[in-house]
Protein: EamA domain-containing membrane protein RarD
Amino acid sequence: MLVPMGPLLCLFSAACFGAMAVFGKYAYQAGVTPPTLLLIRFTLAAVLLGLFLPFATTRPARVPGRVLAIALGLGAIGYATQASLYFAALTVMDASPLALILYTYPLMVTVAAVLLGRDRLTPARGVALIAATGGTLLVLLGSGAASFHPLGVALGIGSALTYTVYILVSDRVVRELPPLLLATLVMAGAAVALAGRSAATGGPDLNFAPAGWLWLACIAVVSTVLAMLTFFAGLRRTGPSTAAILSTFEPVVTAALATLLLGESLSPLQLVGGALVLISAMSLGSAGAAARGAPQPAGGGGSEHQLHPRG
Structure:
């Protein structure tokens, strides 16, 4: 029996996103610095996504100035900061535990939404939150004193927190713009902000091995543009609930690739903790998306997974 195209697209997207940490590790080995990686990634992604805009099925006749400013600000402040923290953490810790730490964001989004009065805490969500918290602790405790990096953990948690704020803000805008246009504006905002930061610090450091360009292209094309486009296509066919569940395949891919290609490994305690985190993320993502209802065909449905930016 053939698997429907929608779930396949979501899984493919998760695999593309999941490979980004491994591409980042290889880029670092080639001498690429995190600021240069981020600047090239977002600039190239913004250009490529912009090239797809004329082929989008839905294009607004006019974008209100307020919405345009928020979309660009999401990239310049939210996405650029989240990605900077993530890739800074990647310089000092393994990709596998970092991916699991980032996936605590469904827990953070749920707690924040409840505190802000946007959502309610059901018994099932309460259990999922407790399981996710316990799983995160197991991931951290299972690393052992020798491989535990407090700075990396702090940066990873900061990345998840920033992503949470990004989601809560973008939730107000995602209904007003088609996802492809919003993603393009977010990428452009991030690229401009990082270009300004680079100019203030002497410009990008391009003194890295030629192989670095390959890994930069992989991050921008495979783990950003292709990952986003296939996620949007899968979301349109499956709805936010299924897409949210399938997205938890991402850290699984990261851990598998990191084991095969980078020689990383998770301890038994971390594997148990990771399983708790992913099961909780599936539960919280599904419940949140189901509570919001199915997305509109134009991409206007409000799911916290609709933008699905990573790292």
